[in-house]
Specification:
Pfam families: Amino_oxidase, SWIRM. Keywords: Chromatin regulator. This protein is an alpha+beta fold and about 725 residues long. The protein is built from 22 helices and 26 strands. The N terminus is likely disordered.
Length: about 725
């Protein structure tokens, strides 16, 4: 079966206080947009007041999508959208950018053309229109999704290159659609017999009575600026707000006293605040301690939940926290467990009417997906990539791997060459937890039409996560379906228990709640128990920051290898891990990166060195007579006309006593980015061995002789040499 790429958070999940900011709501803002933007844009002549009001509204929308009010994103700076930072041109660019974002959000079903922007923005800003529109288009901020009206704007044939996408989950589907729109040839390989990965809607029952139940990722967590909300709008699918009312019951069926509930929840939240204070005082030492250890120490110290009944209630909140993070508190890092909180999307948590399969099917429609293709080996190198699945071999220019972190941890896929040490270490450090479910279809809604969720306390701490929370799907599934959640240690024991025993226990709990009220709990028509931990295509549910790890490991996991092997998925996004929208956004991100690399390859194609007039060993040696950076035995040269961290240059490593006897030397070269060169510089200046080891093992770069680098990087050498000549002429 499958696992939740993100089940999101429970309605009662504790949230730390955050800086308040206005947000764009896919539903609530529709009227405001139509009134203040759509109307004004249709006017040929607008007053100064109209323009100021319109600009303010557009800035609000752009802010909610993720753009700062008066600054550029780092990605925009790297893309060089303006010639000078901080001046009038930057301010004008931001206004144009916000305008484009707001125009598309006004009607996400239509493909926004650059000419439409020219109609409403002064011709004096033509260069800013192109810069902003291209950045937003190619980075997945506009014209993304599943609108049927996008068809005419998708190229019929791929001319940009070929990409294999491994995995048809949200990340893989998002990337594949985006790459097709960019003009790539795409093939998706999926090991399962269906798309969606850890997002899995199962139809329970028969033709006369059925319900669509989420066995994997279920809740759209935060509707403000959520890309899944955009997809729902494009498909005209209603969203159901998960209502706040979540009563808690004891095992005897009594409703937990509201005063006691409020007091324990208040104490629980105060302890989380104390955890923040403690880790700040401990500084780096907090990296080695678990959240569970710190919470229990503080609970005893401050006398929270000393009473046995209060302790059961406190345990419920701990179980809810373990659910939100798909991990036992004993594994969560006290220092970084909540590192993504500042980026959490605001707004309502919602169910999708009819089930998330409606989004998955729309994303998969028309894509070249081959099902039942378990990937055994991924080979990558300068000549392209090769994927082995059973007896079949698939080849392409680049590959995007979107398999879950659990699969990478199990090393189910062999990489040739092996992944860089830096990336493998991040894979090992990050946590990948477990959440399981029991889905039940009943003859009737015995729990009450007014409830979307309700919880139940457990008698012992060790069982706190067993059936602690119930999701009711009767409002959106088409039938009286109920799902019981199992988190923490209980989720691990769940996988080793017979389904009949699990059903007996969950029914006993439900009858304990409703029996005293005189409500008969019938036997379910159908029951399904998930087994995400033993699923060979996931080996777990979703990621968390484990003790010894940090948010930086998400970034490392997202790094590409040799501009051939790329990674996406919820465990590759530092800002939105363990969420469905995080998985989707990571797919858009990698599609943009692949396009960037393809453009670079096209600009600097690999050709025989003799095709580049004047590019020979003398030109190469002349470049390194005046290196841009020299540290120990390593020298670097780059194109002086660009400071882009992604721009590439050359590094030379000298072996032997080069200074004393230039004839007794061995020189090897490789191509790397400025960003990689900066990482090398950050290492110990006096340790050439460490730098060389990092260059080969961590960065995965291959050293080569002069002839090989002339053959491989002839175009790059020519560009750098000519740029240096041009710079001298300008001086």
């Amino acid at each position: 079966m499958d696992t939740p790429a993100s089940d999101g958070t429970a309605t009662r999940r504790t949230l730390r206080r955050k800086v308040s900011r206005k947000n764009y709501d896919e539903n609530a803002m529709d009227e405001l947009i139509e009134k203040q933007i759509g109307g004004n844009l249709k006017k040929k002549f607008r007053t100064k007041q109209d323009l100021e009001k319109e600009t303010e509204t557009e800035a609000l929308i752009a802010l909610s999508v993720g753009f700062p009010i008066d600054e550029l994103l780092e990605e925009e700076i790297r893309a060089g959208v303006v010639r000078e930072l901080g001046g009038k041109e930057q301010n004008d660019y931001i206004v144009v950018r916000n305008h484009i974002v707001a125009r598309w959000r006004d009607n996400v079903r239509m493909w926004l053309l650059k000419d439409e922007i020219r109609e409403t923005v002064s011709s004096d800003c033509e260069h800013l229109i192109s810069a902003a529109y291209d950045f937003l288009l190619f980075n997945g901020y506009i014209n993304f999704g599943v609108s049927p009206l996008f068809g005419p704007y998708i190229p019929d044939e791929g001319t940009e290159g070929s990409v294999i996408v491994v995995g048809a989950g949200l990340a893989g589907l998002a990337a594949a659609r985006q790459l097709l729109s960019f003009g790539f040839k795409v093939l998706v390989l999926e090991g399962r017999s269906r798309p969606g990965g850890r997002v899995y809607t199962h139809k329970m029952g028969d033709k006369d009575r059925f319900a669509a139940v989420e066995l994997g990722g279920s809740v759209i967590t935060g509707l403000h600026a959520n890309p899944l909300g955009v997809l729902a709008r494009q498909l005209s699918i209603p969203l159901h707000k998960v209502r706040d009312n979540c009563p808690l019951y004891t095992s005897e069926g009594a409703v937990v006293d509201k005063v006691a509930d409020s007091n324990v929840e208040f104490g629980f939240n105060k302890l989380l605040d104390k955890v923040t204070e403690v880790r700040e005082m401990m500084d780096g030492a907090a990296k080695k301690i678990s959240l569970g250890e710190v919470l229990e120490t503080l609970r005893v110290l401050y006398g929270v939940a000393k009473d046995p009944e209060e302790k059961k209630l406190f345990d419920w909140h701990l179980a809810n926290l373990e659910y939100a993070n798909a991990g036992c508190l004993s594994n969560l890092s006290a220092a970084y467990w909540d590192q993504d909180d500042p980026y959490e999307m605001g707004g309502d948590h919602c169910f999708l009417a009819g089930g998330n399969w409606r989004l998955i099917n729309a994303l998969a429609e028309g894509l070249p997906i081959m099902y039942g293709k378990s990937v055994d080996t991924i080979k990558y190198g300068d000549g392209g990539v090769e994927v082995i699945s059973g007896s079949q071999i698939f080849q392409a220019d680049m590959i995007l791997c979107t398999v879950p972190l659990g699969v990478l941890k199990k090393k189910s896929i062999k990489f040739e060459p092996e992944l860089p040490t830096r990336k493998q270490a991040a894979i090992d450090r990050l946590g990948f937890g477990l959440l399981n479910k029991v889905a039940m279809l009943f003859p009737s809604v015995f729990w009450g039409e007014e409830l979307d969720t309700f919880g139940c306390l457990n008698e012992s701490s060790i069982d706190r996560g067993e059936f602690f929370l119930f999701y009711a799907y009767h409002t959106v599934s088409g039938g009286p379906a109920l799902v019981a959640l199992v988190a923490g240690e209980a989720a691990q024991r769940f996988e080793l228990t017979e389904p009949s025993a699990l059903l007996h226990r969950v029914l006993k709990k439900l009858r304990g709640i409703y029996g005293p009220k005189g409500v008969v709990v019938p036997d379910p028509i159908q029951t399904i128990c998930t087994r995400w931990g033993s699923d060979p295509f996931s080996y777990g549910s979703y990621s968390h920051v484990r003790v010894g790890s940090s948010g930086a490991d998400y970034d490392i996991l997202a790094e590409s290898v040799r501009n051939r092997l790329f990674f996406a998925g919820e465990a590759t996004t530092r800002q939105h891990p363990a969420t469905m929208h995080g998985a989707y956004l990571s797919g858009l991100r990698e599609a943009s990166r692949i396009l960037h690399v393809a453009n670079f390859f096209r600009s600097y194609p690999k050709k025989p060195v003799q095709r580049y007039s004047g590019v020979n060993i003398d030109v190469l040696e002349d470049l390194f007579r005046r290196p841009d950076i020299a540290t120990g035995k390593l020298s670097f040269v780059f194109n002086p006309l660009t400071d882009d961290p992604k721009s590439t240059g050359l590094v030379r490593v000298c072996f032997g006593n080069f200074e004393d006897d230039p004839t007794n030397r061995l020189q090897l070269y490789t191509i790397l980015s400025r960003e990689q060169a900066n990482k090398l510089q950050e290492l110990d200046e006096n340790s050439d061995g460490n730098k060389l080891s990092y260059l080969i093992s961590a960065l995965g770069l291959k050293l080569m002789g002069a002839n090989s680098v002339l053959d491989t990087g002839g175009a790059l050498i020519s560009v750098i040499a000519n740029a240096r000549k041009g710079r001298r002429v300008m001086r």
